[in-house]
Amino acid sequence: MTEGLLYVLSQPRDGDEAGFHDWYDNEHGPARLALPGVRQGHRYRAADGEAPSWLAWYDLDLEVLHTPGYRRLRDRRSARETAVMSALETLDRRIYELLDDHGAPAAAPPPLLLARAMTVEPAREPGFHDWYAEEHIPSLHALPGWRRTRRYVLVDGDAPRFLALHEIDDPGVFGTAAYHAATSTPWRAEIMRAVTAEERRSFAYHGTFRPSGAPAATQ
After folding, report:
1. Cα–Cα distance between 117 and 215 in angstroms, integer?
2. Are 166 and 152 in contact (CB under 8 A)?
3. Is there a contact between 110 and 169 (Cβ–Cβ < 8 Å)?
4. CB within 8 Å of 77: residues ≥ 6 apart
5. Distance (Å) of CA 17 to CA 14, 87, 90, 146, 174
6. Exposure class string for 27-57: b at 16+ Cβ within 10 A, else e
7. What is the tens place of the pLDDT at every residue in 158-176?
8. Alpha-carbon span 96 to 6, nearest angstrom
9. Of 74, 113, 129, 150, which one's alpha carbon is 20 to 30 angstroms from that of 163?
């Protein structure tokens, strides 16, 4: 099985936001979590004031996305799901394959996610990966509350090619001198000169999907 990530950004239009959340938390997400090979799913809200305001992400085996069960969910939508999705202002669906994983999974979902996506010049990709492995991730993981970093490559979607998904306990870490030092090195500056597209988003925990028939856990 190929480990991957389904990463979906969405933005409801002004109006029935309560209905949007009820559909997502109690119908849409749980139906996907009930599929074999979908290990966990969570929803996060934007912590950076940017739109789209909502992120749903699922850890899964990428093969799940090609199964009859998953195709049925997409092809035979309920009347409610059709209505809610047609009213979305934004739906940005991305599929990633896992490249590497640093740090142990925690018992509880991370309070904060930092999603950092970049495309670099193809000839510079080996150096980009070396920088992440040899300098950037070790420096970040020396900071208090920096739990885990998983890196992915884009399989499908319109986004920068590489995604680093960081799990963090406290957004206060971004204001520390140690974080500034970790993100201001000469090697990083050299790598950033080769970046041709980038995206930086931060999200705060909203809830965890449960299989169909069980209520979602939210806060």
Report:
1. 32
2. no
3. yes
4. 85
5. 7, 11, 14, 32, 30
6. ebbbbbbbbebbeebbbbebbeeeebbbbbb
7. 999 999 999 999 999 999 9
8. 7
9. 74
Above 50 in pLDDT, residue 215?
Answer: no
What DSSP letter does each residue of the chain carry, written as one string? --EEEEEEEEEEPSS-HHHHHHHIIIIIHHHHHTSTTEEEEEEEEESSS-SS-EEEEEEEEGGGGGSHHHHHHHHS--HHHHHHHHTEEEEEEEEEEEEEEESPPPSS--SEEEEEEEEE-GGGHHHHHHHIIIIIHHHHHTSTTEEEEEEEEEEESSS-SEEEEEEES-GGGGGSHHHHHHT--HHHHHHHTTEEEEEEEEEEEEEE---TTSPPEE-
- Give the type of residue at 45: R
Separation of alpha carbons 199 and 184, rounded Å: 18
Instruction: Provide the token pair at 84.
Output: 């809610």
Q: What length is written for the chain?
A: 219
| CA distance linking residue 99 with residue 163, whole number of Å | 9
**What share of the chain in percent tops pLDDT 90?**
89
